């Protein structure tokens, strides 16, 4: 009986101790007070391992329509040993590393890099493509000197702040959003619409130009009427009865 048949018989018999399930590992057969060692684990290994261990060759069993490793039985056809490279021949890359810290803190003046390694190179499958990538970084504009480094362009974002980009800004007309007030900010007065609170609006799409006004402003606040000796309402506002709430508020005339 050849080695492959013996290994297969051992696997079927169930009295073998198997240390590998592919590529022909080692099986241990108890026999009285001694131990017999023979190759086993006839299934081919998957990438990135070699298909078969040294000394064995991948074979095709035409009857069972499976590949396995070992000395060839009579009904097998030799198959060229392979490292299971991917069909496209591009190899298998490991994941990219994290981007490095930027070499500058503003104006797209700095660069950062990341790297990757070829996982399949050690198994005879080189990778195609670059192992290093570089990009410009830190889009916020600089406060001192030029806003952006040479070769980059300043552009006003949707929030009104200036950023730097690698291509000329697009000439387009934007649209203002409604004014919004930060919910965490409180009015600086309590009555008569005498207080003010900051508000902000945005211009979309980002990089386009909106006409008529600015991104930041203030709005009057504190609608309840003031009590004596203060005037009921500050200049520009009049007292009005809110019939639903049964209270007086200050409103625009």
TrEMBL record:
Database matches in SUPFAM superfamilies: TSP-1 type 1 repeat
Domain of life per record: Eukaryota
Family annotation (InterPro entries): TSP1_rpt, TSP1_rpt_sf
SMART domains registered for this protein in UniProt: TSP1
Any Pfam family the entry gives: TSP_1
Protein's recorded name: Uncharacterized protein
Lineage, top ranks: Eukaryota, Metazoa, Ecdysozoa, Nematoda, Chromadorea
């Amino acid at each position: 009986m050849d080695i492959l048949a013996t290994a297969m018989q051992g696997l079927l018999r169930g009295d073998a101790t198997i240390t590998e399930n592919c590529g022909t590992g080692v099986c241990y057969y108890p026999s009285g007070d001694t131990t017999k060692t023979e190759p086993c684990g006839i299934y081919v290994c998957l990438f990135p391992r070699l298909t078969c261990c040294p000394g064995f060759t991948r074979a095709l069993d035409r009857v069972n329509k499976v590949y396995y490793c070992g000395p060839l039985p009579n009904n097998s056809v030799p198959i060229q040993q392979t490292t299971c490279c991917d069909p496209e021949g591009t190899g298998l890359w490991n994941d990219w590393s994290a981007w490095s810290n930027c070499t500058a803190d503003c104006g797209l003046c700095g660069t950062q890099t990341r790297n990757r390694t070829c996982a399949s190179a050690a198994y005879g499958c080189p990778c195609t493509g670059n192992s290093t990538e570089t990009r410009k970084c830190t889009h916020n504009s600089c406060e001192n000197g030029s806003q952006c480094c040479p070769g980059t362009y300043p552009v006003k974002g949707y929030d009104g702040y200036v950023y730097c980009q690698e291509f000329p800004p697009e000439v387009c007309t934007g649209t203002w959003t409604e004014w919004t007030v930060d919910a965490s900010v409180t009015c600086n007065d309590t009555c008569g619409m005498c207080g003010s609170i900051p508000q902000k609006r945005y211009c979309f799409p980002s990089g386009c130009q909106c006409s008529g006004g600015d991104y930041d402003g203030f709005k009057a606040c504190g609608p309840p009427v003031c009590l004596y000796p203060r005037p009921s309402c500050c200049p520009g506002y009049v007292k009005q009865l809110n019939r639903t709430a049964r209270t007086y508020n200050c409103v625009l005339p």
